[in-house]
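User: Please run a holo structure prediction.
Assistant: Happy to. Please share the sequence and the ligand.
User: Here you go; the ligand is pyridoxal-5'-phosphate.
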Amino acid sequence: MVRECNNMIYMDNAATTPLHPAVREVMLPYLDRQFANPSGSYQPAKRVRRDIDNARALIASTIGARPDEIYFTSGGTEGDNWALKAAAFERHRGRIISTNVEHKAVLNCLEWLEAKRYSKTLVHAAHDGRISADDVKAALTNDTFMVSVMTANNEIGTIMPVRDIAIKNELRSRGIILHTDAVQAYGHIALNVNNLGVDMLSASAHKFRGPKGIGFIYIRRDVIETSLIHGGSQEMGMRAGTENTASIIGMAMAAKIAAETLRERSRRETQLRNYMADKICHTFTNARVNGTMKDRLSNNVSICFGSSDTGMNGHTIVSRLDTLGICASAGSACSSASSHPSHVLTGIGMSETEARNSVRFTLSDETTVQDIDYVVACLEKILLQHLF
Ligand code: PLP
């Protein structure tokens, strides 16, 4: 069963999702018979080229873009790096405005750019986990050339007002590029680049049941011309290297399934999310949800289990859940080995202790009420009866 990870209850879908069986199926021929290099000039190569072109067109159609505005990447980290560095390299200096709750793929890239000759301002999220368009406005300076705000947060699932940020601040008419890291949002909420008013958008297939190591970036026509990877003329001359054909085809199938199932999936996930959040908050008097429940991804249940030092910290809870057959996370997957409290949770004004006492459960539409009841029963054993 796909909800299981080695026979465990899998509640870490923000870290990654299982490959959809139909995605695996469409990938297999490209790992086998259809191996031709799409740059070849014989029939098998031309067929692969046509399939890649169709994949590009399909992905473009899911966000209201043109096919020639979609570039395949190795995933979200590369897309974020490409957006920020290319925009910066096309200028001598200047400022990027971003937020204090971005993924490290953005924050560490900004730090690197700052050590060169660029400036950054990080707008702080409010306690509800959201960024305000007015705060972005207050941060704008004459030398700002880019604003980068994630579409939805990876730890608490809060959805940012990207369209408001674009429109209220008239970013396009001021010549300021708007990038959004949509790695957690794409495939989970409906996105249209024209409606959002973004110039660049990065996404990653493994977050929507596609393969790992593949993603895409939308770059509005003529917004940037800088490539970070030089070599052959693949990806319209913008990203060299022989295409990862099987993964591109797989990602397009995952994108198609995600678009077709989005409405029903998110309806079901929202019910499960609310059931789980309510059940946890009723069972544990000190527990509460991190970030707003209103503008939030349908599958995110991020919980703080108390503000006192005597409480059990998230890493301990997660490792005890692990022994009971449950996969959850004490923060984002890439920071789970870190001893620092989450920069997202402290970034929305929680104390270090509250941040440390937090656990993130991210569900899928295949999560069941029985799974949730089992997880809450295990949490009772761990936190109330101290049986583990
Ligand atoms: N941005 C966000 C918001 C993410 O959640 C992640 C991964 O968790 C990334 C970027 C990095 O994506 P990838 O793992 O595809 O490099």
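The longest helix spans residues 245-283.
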